[in-house]
Write a structure and sequence with these properties.
The structure is a single chain. With 164 residues, this protein is mainly α. It folds into 2 domains: 54 residues, no CATH class; 70 residues, Serine Threonine Protein Phosphatase 5, Tetratricopeptide repeat (Alpha Horseshoe). 61% of the residues lie in helices and 0% in strands. The N and C termini lie close together (11 Å).
């Protein structure tokens, strides 16, 4: 999969433009304000975009402590963990996201990816089957299940929320 340890897609943390510049501006604007779940999420997104995975995980973890059932935060935690290669934690976050919204096909698909990485192919298959049951046109899950013509021996791509 391309997302763990992938490129930030931004300007990095050092330049005056791009994500690094946006992060500095956000810090300046919010300097005297208390952290909220939303602001912690934004800071986590910026840390992730600058490939500071541990910091991103800590920030989104603090946001989840404040709002433990916020689907956006749970999905972001899964993305951070997947980028870091922390597949057990990725699976845990996606399980919680599915508990909050059991009809989210992307969470089921992502959980299948996590199980595949954890060498649990039967669990991965069940997740992809559930994904297709929710969204019969889900191309990546259909390919993972061999329902559509896919390139042989190619691992399924990450769900959109895990892509850089």
């Amino acid at each position: 999969m391309a997302f763990p340890g992938g490129s930030s897609g931004g300007g990095g943390g050092t330049g005056g433009s791009g994500i690094g510049g946006l992060e500095r501006l956000y810090q300046k604007v919010t300097k005297d304000l208390p952290d909220t779940a939303r602001s912690l999420n934004v800071k986590s997104v910026l840390a992730l975009e600058n490939n500071r995975l541990q910091e991103a995980a800590e920030l989104i973890g603090r946001a989840l402590a404040l709002e433990p059932e916020e689907p956006v935060f749970l999905i972001h935690m899964a993305k951070v963990c997947a980028r870091a290669g922390w597949w057990s934690e990725t699976a845990g976050s996606l399980r919680r996201a599915i508990y909050v919204d059991p009809r989210d096909a992307e969470s089921w698909y992502g959980l299948g990816i996590a199980f595949e990485k954890l060498d649990q192919p039967d669990q991965a298959r069940l997740c992809w089957e559930q994904c297709v049951a929710i969204d019969p046109a889900h191309r990546e899950a259909r390919n993972a299940l061999g329902l559509d013509a896919a390139k042989p021996d190619m691992p399924p791509p990450p769900p959109p929320f895990m892509r850089s």
